[in-house]
Amino acid sequence: MxxxxxxxxxxxxxxxxxxxxxxxxxxxxxxxxxxxxxxxxYDPKKKELYGYVVTLAKDRPFYYSPTWKTEVRTGSALHxxxxxxxxxxxxxxxxxxxxxxKPRGRVFEFKDQGFKVMVGxxxxxxxxxxxxxxxxxxLPKDRTEFVIDEHWDxxxxxxxxx
Length: 162
Description:
The protein is of the alpha+beta class. The chain has helices at residues 3-9, 16-26, 79-89, 129-136, 158-161, and strands at 36-43, 48-50, 55-56, 63-65, 70-73, 104-110, 114-119, 144-148.
């Protein structure tokens, strides 16, 4: 069913706010398979991503780095901020201790290059995580590269960078 067919078939409600809410959901049908960017953690025991914050790639502007002469975008949520919020909610016990002590990474899109998933060496121990990342973030296999960098190694983060 496409957007126009859905608009014709949806039952009209008496409340115009509900009608508007239904319409905005219908108008997002075509975006369900669009690629996303942002941070995540990987749980090797459950073999699943958690704590991820997906942002529709096309909704974020590219940032031009004059130093590195490239354009790149990612979600604005930082691992540390997500971790602190979830730690204080106490709903998911995985959010305890140091946020850098768990496998984590981030999806970026580089203009005219495709998507790059930045991860630590941990990805070599859990190669099945790649499929989970591709699936959750709806990334095209032919335009996605996994890049290993020490920043995302277990136990590393901003405190080691400065």
